[in-house]
């Protein structure tokens, strides 16, 4: 189990998360310039929906302060750095956004931080301006610029879940042709009419988008789609709506090699991480498996056998 980006955005937790049984974590999302966050409210609870309203908009200390904090530590578990564009009006077009993102990568590459991977967060829906890397040509322009950095550590792209399957596949095709080793599926629920959301709870928050259970079904659908079409090219990290070991295990059986959460821990408590790890053992035994690796994509593989 990993901690997803969006929780430890000030890099405070790298020394303690292993104590609650996290196996890896992501710091950030970090941007080139610091940002104090969107106007309040930045967070809110939707208990009936098992969801959080999220509207922080890449609140973080900025790359320089984050590097200064992280260089003093050794990490007991693998740590990833999530990178996105600075959420300020001065970054208001595609070229500026690309240069801003590249500058953050370059700063981390020069720093003496023993992190394990990068996340490229192109899917936060709570940002200023009209910059978007969803259109394949714009995504390719960004990835070409990152290719030129010749990064040694792997890059995973944080994906949206509000695109059609066809749009999603076009994005995956571009990603598979460039440096990223995989994708993280996925980010927040932007559809306020989604049946998993309680409409009265949604009305309390005119701004922001939603994490937790409202992301679960679409995340699973896109994990299965990605594994079926790009499972041999891209590693999949499953994220969205994990509140139990069975939730996490389902993402693995659909094709995820790793899983992340935030909202489940907020609602259920930090003991959830250890509980999930223990539940994995029973779930593996129920499927006649001995190692979690054997479960990756199992449902997709079984469906293929049935259709042949």
From TrEMBL:
Concerning SUPFAM superfamilies, the annotation shows: FMN-linked oxidoreductases (SSF51395)
Query: Which cofactor does the UniProt annotation name?
Result: FMN
GO molecular function terms attached to this record: dihydroorotate dehydrogenase activity
Q: Which UniProt keywords apply?
A: Flavoprotein, FMN, Membrane, Oxidoreductase, Pyrimidine biosynthesis
> GO cellular-component terms in the record?
cytoplasm; plasma membrane
Q: Which residues form the Dihydroorotate dehydrogenase catalytic domain?
A: 2-281
Pathway connected to this protein: Pyrimidine metabolism; UMP biosynthesis via de novo pathway
Top-level taxon of origin:
Bacteria
Identify the PANTHER family for this entry: DIHYDROOROTATE DEHYDROGENASE (QUINONE), MITOCHONDRIAL (PTHR48109:SF4), DIHYDROOROTATE DEHYDROGENASE (QUINONE), MITOCHONDRIAL-RELATED (PTHR48109)
What does this protein's UniProt record list under function? Catalyzes the conversion of dihydroorotate to orotate with quinone as electron acceptor.
Q: What is this protein called?
A: Dihydroorotate oxidase
